[in-house]
Specification:
Blueprint (H helix, E strand, L loop, with lengths): L1 E10 L8 E8 L2 E6 L5 E6 L4 E4 L1 E3 L22 E6 L14 H11 L4 H7 L7 H11 L4 E7 H9 L10 H17 L3 E5 L19 H14 L3 E5 L6 H11 L3 E6 L8 H14 L4 E5 L4 E5 L14 H4 L4 H9 L1 H11 L16 E5 L13 H8 L3 H11 L5 E7 L3 H8 L4 E3 L16 H12 L5 H7 L2 H6 L16 E4 L5 E2 L3 E3 L8 E3 L2 E2 L1 E6 L2 E5 L2 E2 L16
Parallel strand pairs: 1-4, 1-5, 6-7, 7-8, 8-9, 9-10, 10-11, 11-12, 12-16
Antiparallel strand pairs: 1-2, 2-3, 5-17, 13-15, 14-15, 17-22, 18-21, 19-20, 22-23, 23-24
Helix pairs in contact: 4-5, 5-6, 12-13
Length: 561
């Protein structure tokens, strides 16, 4: 007798095959059979003609801290995700010496927009080494499956301490870092993650530690993957990291390279396709490179108190390093500071930053002062044209007049849907970039899979539903060597989602206060999602997450070669 049968479903297998009618039988957490007349089961679910597909594999999240207090990886499980990959960009909380805990948290507060108070109250520090961290998550239990990168910035901080964001490492320090990376990978890390992105700064505007690594260090640490003959190298790419350089690393180690984040930049819309062409050429030479792409416009809600989207601008650095608020306000008002911003914004060819093309996508969401309420809903670009003023002046003056509390919404990248469609369908693309668990007060893109099915399939018709399901299930699972997941096939793990293709979508954003200490975050509900099963256990029903579902998820430690 099977443990579970979900029958009367429209099955989309995650491998690209056309939909077929039938059911799925589950035994021991795995798919035992697919078809009709599957026999008896302890539990039977009538899908009523809804789509049954593999659960979404989200390969770009930042739940490293949150999982120590939230086994559900909120909100991902409720949005159809059955496997999350954490530790992206190299921003992890292990390994971590006790004396470095506070600096790790303060840096995460800045670079990933996490509440410091929530982390201080929520993180359970019962680990120091990376293997101990995996064990800690395993002991607590989790609802989705979790695969974890070992993070460069944490490894660097563990070895170099306060110097991690100040200098290059010595040969001895590099050797010790390599030992730690190898230890982590052999203990079950999915790979090694780092960042060279100029926007990735910690507290006080100092670079995140990984940005201080020289080529010798990068080659040594990625070389640990080649030595282990396992693991993915994940890089969030800055201006100095070229595709040919990443091809060199892939060639040296024989391991996949996952490159984030690749968007259509309105300031230079051809650049991403040039880089995709370079990735294709690398593949033709036998190097496995992937481009992480997003299916949303990259948008963030922010105030001038926490202006994360501006921090990639070199001209913004005087504001980042201001010693106090009075000096900060003085800098924002300074005409010379503003001229420097205007000049930099006009320079072509600099990726991953706000550009002159963004002003018509920068909206005044909410103001604090009643006298400014008439500006809510208006766009900075249009306000500047109406007032015949520079957009920077309009933007900064409004923020200053409103005591830095004006909430702005800015769509930075992926605003041209025709080009984004081309990006999503590229053979080297890995659809991801939810950033779930990070930037909680700025964005919530954890529902990217539901958005892909609703917007890009149903509303626009740019992809078929089997193509879209495959993109967020087996394609990314296989790229990351995650075995027996992301597919409906005999013997595969029963990670499943049930949804209505006529209504599936992510709902409107909302602000909730459910973090430790009551800190707020943005959330988005699922629409048209009727069920989620992790390893054969139902974790979501039509009403949402099942609080007493147990903790059916697994810490994934074994991967295909």
């Amino acid at each position: 007798m099977h443990d579970l049968i979900i029958d009367n479903a429209r099955i989309i297998d995650g491998l690209g095959a056309p939909a077929r009618d039938g059911g799925v039988a589950v035994a021991g957490g795995r798919i035992a059979a697919i078809g009709k007349d599957l026999g008896a089961a302890k539990q039977r679910v009538d899908a009523q003609g809804l789509v049954l597909a593999p659960g979404i594999v989200d390969i770009h999240t930042h739940y490293d801290a949150q999982l120590t207090w939230d086994p559900f990886a909120t909100p991902s499980t409720a949005l159809g995700v059955t496997t999350v990959v954490i530790g992206n960009c190299g921003f992890t909380i292990a390994p971590c010496r006790p004396q470095h805990r506070d600096v790790i948290m303060r840096n995460l507060t800045h670079v990933e927009g996490m509440s410091l108070d929530a982390m201080r109250a929520g993180i359970q520090w019962d680990f120091e080494s990376y293997p101990e961290y995996l064990g800690s998550i395993e002991r607590r239990g989790i609802v989705p499956n979790v695969a974890s990168f070992v993070g460069h910035s944490s490894v660097r901080t563990y070895v170099l301490g306060e110097d991690a964001s100040k200098r290059a490492a010595t040969d001895a320090e590099i050797a010790e870092m390599r030992r730690l990376v190898l230890e982590a990978v052999m203990a079950g890390a999915i790979g090694f993650a780092t960042s060279t992105l100029e926007q990735h700064n910690g507290e006080g505007g100092i670079p995140m530690p990984s940005r201080l690594a020289d080529e010798k260090e990068m080659l040594a640490l990625t070389g640990a993957l080649g030595e282990a003959k396992r693991g993915v190298f994940m890089l969030t790419k800055g201006m100095t990291s070229t595709i040919p350089w990443l091809e060199k690393i892939a060639g040296a180690n024989g391991r996949p390279v996952m490159i984030a984040a690749m968007f259509v930049d309105p300031g230079d819309p051809t650049r991403v396709f040039k880089e995709l062409g370079e990735i294709e050429q690398a593949r033709s030479r036998g190097r496995e490179l992937w481009a992480q792409v997003g299916c949303f416009p990259l948008g963030m809600e922010f105030t001038l108190r926490h202006p994360y989207p501006l921090e990639a601008l070199m001209a913004w650095r005087p504001a980042m390093t201001a010693p106090d608020q009075a000096r900060y306000r003085k800098i924002l008002a300074d005409p010379g500071f503003r001229r420097a911003l205007i000049h930099e914004m006009g320079q072509p060819g600099v990726p991953n930053r706000i550009s002159n093309e963004n002003w018509d996508y920068l909206t005044v969401m909410e103001v604090k002062k009643p006298s400014l309420r008439h500006l809510e809903g208006q766009v900075i670009g249009q306000l500047a044209r109406d007032q015949k003023r520079e957009p920077w002046d309009v933007f900064l003056d409004l923020g200053l007049d409103d005591d830095l509390d004006t909430m702005f919404d800015c769509r930075l990248f992926n605003t041209d849907e025709k080009k984004v469609s081309e990006l999503l369908r590229h053979p080297c693309a890995a659809v991801a970039l939810s950033d779930a668990g990070a930037h909680l007060s700025f964005l919530c893109d954890a529902g990217f899979g539901l958005h892909l099915f609703g917007h890009w399939v149903r509303e626009r018709g740019d992809m078929t539903l089997p193509q879209a399901v495959r993109a967020v299930t087996s394609t990314v699972a296989d790229a990351y060597r995650i075995k027996d997941r992301g597919r409906i096939a005999p013997g595969a793990w029963a990670d499943l989602m049930l949804f209505d293709s006529a209504t599936v979508a992510r709902g409107p954003k909302r602000r909730v206060n459910d973090l430790p200490t009551g800190a707020s975050r943005l959330d988005t509900p699922a629409v048209g999602l009727h069920g989620v099963w992790v390893n054969g256990v139902r974790a979501v029903d039509p009403q949402g997450v099942i609080a007493d579902c147990g903790r059916p998820g697994r810490v994934l430690r074994e991967f295909a070669s």
